[in-house]
UniProtKB/TrEMBL annotation:
It comes from hydrothermal vent metagenome. Residues 781-1077 form the CHAT domain. InterPro entries: CHAT_dom, TPR-like_helical_dom_sf, TPR_rpt. This is CHAT domain-containing protein.
Length: 1102
């Protein structure tokens, strides 16, 4: 029966075909139907030879067009174009003519000739359609959509134009509109029309791209049936190919391969080479699911070559994405980058192609630990995926971003991203994606110690991967299941699984994963076996270019040598590990948050090396490596400011980029080495100090030199190591190490007793600590002094300047309030009779010695403006005034509807300070807006803000008046974008010196962001400060500053004057601390201005 049906179908087609040729040859209008059927026959069948019969084709146009189609199928593009272009002046009404004209012109890169012709012609519908087709094939889809829509105004029933319009809308990511346009076209054709099959297949693809696979499969089958009934071989090929893709995604690989092979054979049979390339490209994807990279690459490359011969930019872009993905999976990052960039270059306005290229670039840069670039590309891809509502691709992007944040040590953020769409991923429709999702969730749970959930998700991933033949993901999930067992004290089971998976990795050439597995195995072994596992792991990771794993391996080898008391070898491998990490840091220079998080993950490497140096008695090396471990992002940002000031930031960026390419084997090694050395020499000649800071192998003697200090300066850095405390004291006398006879836990207990404010058991963030609640305990302050400072200061003369670099445990403790005398002098109140450290020394703070060196070397700002802002108009929500300059932390900042009371004394403070400046901008009340602050900050040498501030999610926020441009909440991210050149910034507000504490960077708050933005010094507070008393302290501070005193000395004298004249309670005066450059402020005297003006007048009169 089937055979009979086929014979009947053929007879039906031939009957229609012959009847078309029997029409009057001279009447082109009446012959268009027959002519169209003949062209349809040529497109859907094999062309053995050119045989144009004048009785079939009625005029020169039809003969030339038929011959042009045959030439096109035979790759005789010049002949085809010549035959077509000669008829352009006739403005043929047969629209398929314009399609072939544009396609042949595209192959020959000859669009300009057509464009020139069209530009000189009238705005006829056919020429407008022609212009739209050129835009379409050049991937300028926005312009194409506009022109096709305009054509339809005069040719509303043109199915061809509607189909192209729908395809354009699809490529712009508007699947809904594309579907509506297709439906309009479908309503215009009969069931037996060959275009019905084309429309149905296109409709199925819209469902497919929208992740509606069941609907897509149903419509593809309808399209296949319609194609068979109309003899539309092209659509039979497309329908089979698309059904193959659906079978692949559902795990029915055998059926998929059968469909792909059928599609391939038929496309070859009918001589449709671009269709052959399309089938090959999707067939290759099928081989990636079964981990057959050789078969996949063979088909991809053949496909790409064919598309290239047709200059099909869109298909070249999509095929390049697939080839790049293949290279990515085998760790060929150079090849992956080349093809992803090629895809991006050719994608034009094709939203899907761009999205896939962006996602792929994100994956590559994540693997290469260039997280700033990776995040940028992921965000670009995610924006496009949301535009086209592609849930599966958005999920894949989220997986990539999740891996990125997981690598940065942010498992919660990673998990949130990966789980974002998990409920929308059906394992029956998308088993591979569901397997990958479960795998990544399991890996993250392993890292957080949630082993039961980790094992559940990883087992689910293994089941799905094995069921559908996804070998790579099966190996990866098994690897992390094994590691979960190891971490959960079941090393025997874990090791057994790892050995089996390692064998598979060797078999399939998965070097990166093999390196990870051997590193995991090394955690279950000891002695020489562990050493051998690590050395083999290093070989695999080196060959795969996996720098992050290699750093971990070198660190583990270093620890092995340390256990063996081979300290020289241990130092070598610790430095190798750190060098790899430091090579990655500059790549994150444009994203502080990422650089900070990345560095924190490897902070322990520095601590271990410091311990090694201390054991070896290498004190200077220990101080050097510990200082490198502190606030590296802040230092990079400060150096970035200096580089930018030299107008050579492009040279620095080129250095970083070339170094990264060399590290990751992304170019010709010899060529990269030569170029890199040339730039390195140029940088070293121009900026020797800066390049020393960036080089892990720089000489430590250059790092620390006695002439860096004045005679009265002492830099004191504390190192809390496990439960021991070391203090590095350096000055003109040299470097001295003091090991304190106390423990970290003892110090933490004393601090918690100084005030309830430091007691970790006081968890209510809504408490405002006034002087009574602060309840300062001078005896504990004295005890802390005796434990951590007295042994260090025994030989330091009084009135010296102390610069402290403190670990996180001491970051919120102002040393100024440490009591240096325990007993009462006169028998009165203990607070009145106490003597505090500030009375003996001026005190400054710095995140690290390197940062202090950088800030102290800065020249005074050329700006002479003082920007003074305070007492902003606020959304009060009630009557009265606030006694402190802070607000509740239990607020929803995102609502931007925070009720706070005004400050009664803030205006007084600003007016008092204003008297010390002649050139100032004063912002009070409704003028104290965030916008006015931002507009004036870049011109100010001194910035003083007297207002409310508070912590939101552990990050400080300063409150201004709002206006139409800004909401009045100045956050750290906004400050970091300012380009300041300020000698000093004072935040006379509550808790402005606090923030989130990172284990390597320290407090991430206003101090850091103002340094990053370009300030040389900052004065900030460590708790809720009194509105009334702060006015006096600030007045005293500026009084001494105006006398020419250094900032540290002026703040010291202000605090002493406050103690003697106002109140000795440290609650009032100790909160404000100075960080950074302590040089004096250059005030402009009125008298100098008058002398200048007088002189100017005299000159004018001459």
């Amino acid at each position: 029966m089937k055979f009979v049906a086929q014979i009947l179908l053929i007879l039906f087609f031939i009957s229609n075909f012959l009847s078309a040729f029997s029409l009057d040859e001279k009447n082109t209008a009446h012959n268009i139907s027959s002519f169209e059927q003949y062209i349809f026959y040529l497109e859907n069948n094999k062309i053995e030879e050119i045989n144009i019969n004048s009785k079939i084709l009625s005029n020169d146009f039809e003969k030339d067009f038929a011959e042009a189609v045959i030439n096109y199928k035979q790759n005789k593009f010049e002949n085809s174009y010549r035959l077509l272009f000669v008829h352009l002046k006739e403005r043929p009404v047969f629209l398929k003519y314009y399609e072939y004209l544009v396609k042949t012109a595209g192959v020959l890169n000859n669009y300009n000739q057509i464009k020139d012709f069209v530009s000189q012609s009238k705005d006829e519908a056919e020429f407008l359609y022609l212009s739209g087709l050129i835009d379409y094939y050049e991937t300028n889809y926005g312009s194409a959509e506009e022109k096709f829509s305009k054509v339809l105004q005069t040719k509303p029933n043109s199915v061809e134009v509607l189909i192209y319009l729908s395809n354009t809308q699809r490529r712009l990511g508007d699947y809904e509109k594309a579907a509506e346009t297709l439906q309009t076209a479908k309503n215009m054709v009969s069931k037996n029309d060959p275009k019905t099959a084309e429309i149905l297949v296109l409709k199925g693809s819209l469902y497919f791209l929208s992740d509606k696979y069941e609907k897509a499969e149903k419509v593809y089958k309808e399209g296949l049936q319609a194609a068979k009934e109309s003899g539309n071989n092209i659509e039979i090929v497309k329908a089979n190919m698309n059904l193959g893709m659906i079978n692949d995604l559902s795990g029915n690989i055998r059926k998929a391969r059968e469909l792909f092979e059928n599609a391939y054979n038929l496309s070859k049979k009918i001589d449709q080479k671009e269709l052959v390339a399309l089938v090959l490209s999707e067939w290759a994807v099928s081989f990636t699911y079964s981990n057959e990279p050789v078969e996949a690459r063979k088909r991809y490359e053949e496909s790409y070559s064919i598309f290239q011969s047709f200059n099909n930019r869109e298909r070249m872009a999509l095929t390049a994405v697939n080839i790049a993905s293949l290279y990515l999976n085998i760790g060929n990052y150079r090849g992956a980058l080349d093809y992803y960039n090629s895809a991006l270059e050719r994608s034009g306005e094709n939203v899907r192609a761009k999205m896939l290229a962006f996602r792929g670039l994100g994956d590559v840069y994540t693997n290469l630990a260039n997280y700033t670039k990776a995040l940028k590309y992921y965000n670009d891809a995610k924006d496009l995926s949301r535009k086209i509502k592609d849930i599966s691709t958005e999920t894949e992007i989220n997986i990539g971003m999740g891996v990125l944040f997981y690598n940065l040590g942010k498992p919660k953020k990673a998990l949130d991203l990966i789980l974002e769409n998990i409920d929308e991923i059906n394992e029956n429709e998308l088993p591979y994606l569901k397997a990958e999702l479960d795998q990544k969730v399991g890996i993250i749970y392993t890292s957080t110690g949630n082993y039961s959930d980790a094992e559940k998700y990883l087992a689910s991933s293994i089941t799905l991967s094995d069921k559908f033949g996804d070998i790579y993901n099966s190996i990866l999930s098994n690897t992390y299941l094994a590691y979960s067992y190891i971490l959960n004290n079941n090393a025997k089971s874990g090791k057994k699984i790892l050995k089996k998976q390692l064998k598979l990795c060797r078999e399939y050439g998965l070097n990166q994963l093999a390196g990870v597995q051997l590193l995991m195995i090394s955690e279950t072994t000891n002695g020489n076996k562990r050493y051998n596992d690590l050395k083999e792991a290093a070989k695999f990771s080196l060959s795969a270019g996996d720098k992050s794993t290699l750093a971990e391996i070198y660190f583990s080898i270093g620890r092995y040598y340390e256990e063996q008391e081979q300290l020289g070898n241990a130092e070598e491998y610790f430095l190798k590990a750190i060098s790899i990490i430091e090579d990655q840091l500059p790549l994150l220079k444009n994203n502080s948050e990422m650089q900070i998080t990345f560095f924190a993950n490897y902070h322990q490497m520095y601590i271990s090396l410091a311990d090694l140096y201390l054991r070896s008695g290498k004190i200077q090396r220990a101080f050097w490596i510990l200082d490198r471990s502190r606030s590296r992002n802040t230092l990079y940002n400060l150096l970035g400011i200096k580089f930018s000031e030299t107008n050579n930031i492009d040279l620095v960026n080129k250095f970083y980029d070339l170094n990264w390419k060399l590290l990751n084997n992304l170019g010709d090694t010899d060529s990269l080495e030569v170029r890199l050395q040339k730039i390195r020499n140029e940088l070293t000649d121009k900026y020797p100090e800066l390049t020393k800071q960036l080089n892990i192998n720089s000489n430590t003697a250059d790092f620390l030199q006695p002439d860096m200090f004045s005679a009265s300066q002492y830099f004191i850095s504390y190192f809390f190591d496990s439960d021991s405390i070391y203090v590095f004291k350096t000055s003109r006398k040299g470097l001295e190490l003091v090991k304190l006879q106390t423990s970290v836990s003892d110090i933490e207990n004393i601090i918690s007793s100084i005030s309830p404010y430091y007691n970790p058991e006081v968890v209510d963030k809504d408490i405002h600590f006034n002087k009574d609640l602060f309840s300062f305990n001078p005896d504990k302050a004295y005890e802390l002094y005796m434990k951590i400072l007295e042994p260090v200061l025994s030989d330091v003369p009084k009135n010296s300047e102390l610069i402290f670099s403190l670990p996180n445990q001491l970051a919120a403790v102002p040393f100024e309030f440490l009591s240096t005398d325990k007993r009462n002098i006169s028998g009165g109140s203990s607070l009145f009779d106490r003597k505090y450290l500030i009375e003996d020394y001026s005190i400054t703070y710095s995140p690290s010695f390197s940062i202090w060196k950088e800030l102290r070397s800065r020249a005074s700002s050329q700006n002479k403006l003082a920007l003074l802002a305070g007492d902003p108009d606020l959304n009060t929500g009630g009557n009265g005034y606030s006694s402190t300059r802070g607000v509740s932390e239990n607020l929803d900042l995102y609502s931007r509807d925070i009720k706070v009371l005004p400050l009664k004394y803030s205006s007084e403070e600003i007016e008092d300070i204003e008297g010390y400046f002649s050139n100032d901008v004063v912002l009070l009340k409704d003028k104290a807006t965030e916008t006015n602050f931002k507009n004036n900050a870049q011109s100010a040498s001194v910035i003083h803000l007297s207002t409310h501030s508070f912590l939101f999610n552990n990050y400080p926020v300063v409150i201004f008046a709002e206006d139409d441009e800004n909401d009045g909440y100045l956050e750290t991210g906004e400050i970091a974008k300012l380009k300041l050149n300020s000698d000093m910034v004072v935040l006379s507000s509550c808790k402005s010196g606090l923030g989130y504490i990172d284990k390597a960077e320290g407090i991430l708050g206003m101090q850091k962001v103002f340094f990053d933005a370009g300030a040389s010094s900052v004065v900030l507070s460590l708790w809720d400060v009194s509105d009334k008393h702060t006015v006096s302290l600030m007045k005293f501070f500026y009084e001494f500053l105006s006398d020419g005193q250094a900032k540290s000395e002026a703040l010291r004298n202000a605090k002493i004057k406050f103690i003697n004249k106002i109140d000795p309670n440290p609650y009032y005066w100790a909160a404000f601390t100075l960080s950074g450059n302590s040089n004096p402020i250059q005030f402009v005297n009125d008298s100098n201005i008058y002398i200048y003006l007088f002189g100017l007048i005299i000159l004018l009169l001459l």
